[in-house]
Design brief:
The structure is a single chain. The protein has 89 residues and is an alpha+beta fold. Helices cover 22% and strands 24% of the residues. Strands 1-6-2 form a 3-stranded antiparallel sheet, covered by helices on one side. The radius of gyration is 12 Å and the shape is globular.
Length: 89
């Protein structure tokens, strides 16, 4: 199983691009630019939850700002897949 090493910099992640997109557009742009995807409408936490799309066995990683924890294998809901309010940061 391949391992990935993360270098997380939320300083640059805090500068978000407000441009509502479908998830496929957001993932494509985020991967090309080395950024995260997120939905502002789904941010229930005081700190933003960033999703890092990958092509590894870890799938999409969840990274909570101001935390060192990383969640693996994020599973989008049907609403996530149909939404058009995705943004990148």
């Amino acid at each position: 199983m391949p391992r990935i090493t993360l270098s997380i910099s939320f300083e640059s992640a805090n500068r978000s691009e407000v441009m509502d997109m479908k998830i496929d557009e957001a993932v494509s742009k985020a991967m090309a630019e080395g950024k995260y995807i997120y939905r502002e409408s789904e941010n229930y936490y005081p700190d933003h939850v960033n999703i890092l799309p990958t092509n590894t066995y870890d799938c999409c990683l969840l990274l909570l700002e101001n935390s060192d924890s990383v969640g693996k294998r994020w599973n989008p809901t049907a609403n996530d897949l149909m939404a058009s309010d995705w943004e990148i940061r």
